[in-house]
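Hi R.,

Quick one: here's the Glycoside hydrolase family 19 catalytic domain-containing protein sequence you asked about.
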Amino acid sequence: MLLHGNDRACPTRGFYTYDAFIAGASSFSAFAATGDQATRKREIAAFLAQTAHETTSGGGWVAPDGPYACGYYYNKELNVE
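And here's the predicted structure, written out as tokens:
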């Protein structure tokens, strides 16, 4: 799911796993639980897109596929004022 999640240059290598996502999502019973199947899938996709955007590499390492392919590079937001 995360193409470069285990890249040596990624500081969160191995941090974001499928099992961790399922465990976290199960803590929120309403997450992706309402509407038809297409709506539930869109909710999951929107969540992953937003969180990948917020944790992408703003500098330094760039994924081989380009600067927007390295979501989940960080596990916290940096330099927030």
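The two ends are 31 Å apart (CA to CA).

Cheers,
M.
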